[in-house]
Amino acid sequence: MVACRQEYIEFIIVVIFVFQIWLYQTVYINRFGTSRAVDTVDLLISMFAAIYLANNINTEWRLTFHAFNLSAALTTINLIFQYLFGSSTHFKRDHDLQGFIIALDLEFILLVTGLIIGYQYGVYLCVAGGLIGFLMPLVMYRIFRPEQVNFPHLVERLSLIIITFGETLVNITHYFKGAIYSPLAIVIFLGVAALFGVYTLLVERFLNHHQHTRGFIAMYTHVVMIISLLSITAGIIYMADEEVSRLFLSCFVASNLIVFYLCLWLYSFYNRRHLRFNGRDLRAMAIVLLLGSLGIILCRENNLSLMSAFALTNVVEFGLLEWKLQRKKAL
Transmembrane ranges (predicted)? Predict the structure, then answer.
């Protein structure tokens, strides 16, 4: 259990590490990109580094320490170059630009120092670099200007989270063998599809895509949602493993489902004024989520029952959103 906990923490750190780099690239394109030749070249360099980064993700950090962190350092210095020379704004006059470059500089310094020191102690500096790159913009939150954010573009980029839903289906294909009317396969698909529907409905119909905002809630909630989705996927995969503790497995799936919805409700901060969730909406959705999570835990001994509770929770949550949308249309 201790080993599993350590591996899960390492998994969270790696996801944060990778996605904070992607967010910096997204922010650059969103706020400063000018579609010049330098942007294209820098994107190609980032793609090259990202391939190595992805292929050197491993739970045994010692084996891929240098390759992974060299790729991260290359991506980071490339991002610094983009922010400094690809932007059409002047470094001394743009506080947004200064904030992001400071965070990237600190991350790069820690990555390089960690690589020089070596795995035994350097791994802690590299991890610190990734976490500082992720959290530093929050520390400097007030220096960033909302008017520089292209929010529709940001929502579109962040909505690439749908790829994670696709990954979920790809990774659970072993449940879709044999008869096409397998109850377990149908219920699993229904649960994942309803969860995807909840996210899509919120983004497509509830959000106000045209507003001035720094976009920080959107960016940070998506990182956590991706972690929770990947965790739910892992939980569904391990349902087939008879050696896994059923109590642990059910609590793992239920807790990550709760985390996903909490992030989604935070994301609803950007809803259109008439579609914002009031106290009654949140209470209803919270009750459904808590009852569904309890059902997942109580039905843990049977995969079909566990997944039925999971699917029912997401279907009802989707229904509550659709009901609110239709009710507001009728007013």
Answer: 6-24, 36-54, 66-85, 97-116, 122-143, 180-203, 215-240, 246-270, 282-298, 304-323
- Three-class secondary structure of residue 197 per DSSP: helix
Tokens representing 213?
């905002």
3-class secondary-structure state, position 271: strand
As a whole number of angstroms, the distance between CA 105 and CA 76 comes to: 8
Q: Is 25:46 a contact under the CB 8 Å cutoff? A: yes
pTM: 0.90
Helix axes 216-238, 151-158, angle to 10 degrees: 10
SS3 percent helix, strand, coil of the chain, rounded to 5, is: 80, 0, 15
Neighbours of 328 (CB within 10 A): 12
Place of tokens 């039905």: 299
Q: What is the DSSP secondary-structure string of 20-78?
A: HHHHHHHHHHHHT----HHHHHHHHHHHHHHHHHHHT--S-HHHHHHHHHHHHHHHHHH
What tens-digit pLDDT sequence spans the chain (331 residues)? Answer: 555 677 888 889 888 988 898 888 888 888 776 666 777 787 788 888 878 777 777 777 888 889 899 999 999 999 998 888 766 666 556 777 888 889 999 999 999 999 999 989 999 999 999 999 999 888 887 778 887 888 888 888 888 777 777 777 777 777 777 666 788 989 999 999 999 999 999 999 999 988 888 889 999 999 999 999 999 999 999 888 888 899 999 999 999 999 999 999 999 999 999 999 999 999 999 999 999 999 999 999 999 999 999 999 999 999 999 999 988 775 5
Give bridge partners of residue 207 from the DSSP assignment: 271
Q: Which residue is listed with tokens 């590490």?
A: 17
DSSP secondary structure string, 128-161?
HHHHHHHHHHHHTGGGS-GGG--HHHHHHHHGGG
Question: Which whole-number Å values give the CA distances from 275 to 123, 208, 211, 245, 268, in the listed order?
Answer: 46, 9, 15, 41, 9
Q: List phi, psi (to 5°) of 66.
A: -70, -45
**Any idea which residue has 């219920």 for tokens?**
187
